[in-house]
Amino acid sequence: MSSDTIFTKIINKEIPADIIYEDDQALAFKDINPQAPFHCLIIPKKPIATINDITVEDKSLIGHLYIVAAQLAKEHGFDEQGYRVVMNCNSNGGQTVYHIHLHMLAGKAMGWPPYTEKLKN
Ligand code: AMP
C-alpha cells in the first residue's frame, strides 16, 4: 500500500514538487497546502506507511529526518526563533498520505494545544 502513494511519485520525479533538500535517504519539499509561512514535508525515500510500521532497522533513518529538519531550520533562518516538527498517525492523528513524513512548520508562533475541546469539567 505504502509504495503507491503520491510521495513515491514525487521521489521518483513522476510528478513535480518544490524540492528543497535531497540525499540518498530523504527528500524535503514544500507542502502543497501550507499551514504556516514555511511548511515543508521531510520524508524517507523508503516507503513506511505509518509510525506504527517503523522498525528497529529504521532507527537511524528516522533520526536522519530530524537531522535534515535541523539543517533546514538553520539554512532558512528559523532555528533560533523556533518551529514545529510533527508526524501524524492514522485517522485520529490527521494522516492523509500513508508514507511517513515530518511536517516542518515555521515563520510564525504555533498554537498549542492542537486539541481544543474541553477534556475535563
Ligand atoms: P498528513 O495529513 O499528515 O498525511 O499530511 C499530508 C500532507 O501532504 C498534507 O499537508 C498535504 O497538503 C500534503 N500534500 C499532499 N499532496 C502533496 C503534493 N503533491 N505535494 C506537496 N504536498 C502534498
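^ adenosine monophosphate complex. The longest strand covers residues 38-44. The chain has one domain: 6-106.
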